[in-house]
């Protein structure tokens, strides 16, 4: 994954969101890294390795692929989609995907603000797809 300025900014924002009211130290402990690592990621100085990215994705409830799509932004979505198509034959994507029914059940159980975030992302995705067609 290419790490551009936008990716670093998105990661920093996501980490702050996931950390919430926790200190960098306690959040680092949760991730199994040093508090300096979290500090550097939030200040956009360094980039986490794939193992740490996977832990971050898990905290968000995403797969590593979903995190990468989010971090790479609009310009990289088509290349990630091409990777997905290539991996469907191997069954990898199917293992990473949840059924729509499971996802809907989870969304229904979310607190209001989290459901609002899901709705915003869904709307952005639909707008992006409509613009491509």
TrEMBL record:
<keyword id="KW-0614">Plasmid</keyword>
<dbReference type="Pfam" id="PF01381">
    <property type="entry name" value="HTH_3"/>
</dbReference>
<dbReference type="GO" id="GO:0003677">
    <property type="term" value="F:DNA binding"/>
</dbReference>
<dbReference type="InterPro" id="IPR010982">
    <property type="entry name" value="Lambda_DNA-bd_dom_sf"/>
</dbReference>
<dbReference type="InterPro" id="IPR001387">
    <property type="entry name" value="Cro/C1-type_HTH"/>
</dbReference>
<feature type="domain" description="HTH cro/C1-type">
    <location>
        <begin position="15"/>
        <end position="67"/>
    </location>
</feature>
<protein>
    <submittedName>
        <fullName>Transcriptional regulator</fullName>
    </submittedName>
</protein>
């Amino acid at each position: 994954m290419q790490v551009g300025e936008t990716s670093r900014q998105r990661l920093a924002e996501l980490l702050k969101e996931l950390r919430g009211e926790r200190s960098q130290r306690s959040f680092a402990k949760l991730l199994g890294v040093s508090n300096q690592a979290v500090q550097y990621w939030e200040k956009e100085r360094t980039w986490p390795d794939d193992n740490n990215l996977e832990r971050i994705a898990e905290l968000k409830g995403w797969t590593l692929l979903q995190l990468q799509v989010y971090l790479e932004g609009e310009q990289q979505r088509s290349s990630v989609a091409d990777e997905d198509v290539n991996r469907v034959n191997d069954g990898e994507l199917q293992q990473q995907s949840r059924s729509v029914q499971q996802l809907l059940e989870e969304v229904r159980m979310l607190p209001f603000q989290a459901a609002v975030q899901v709705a915003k992302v869904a709307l952005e995705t639909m707008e992006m797809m409509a613009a491509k067609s």
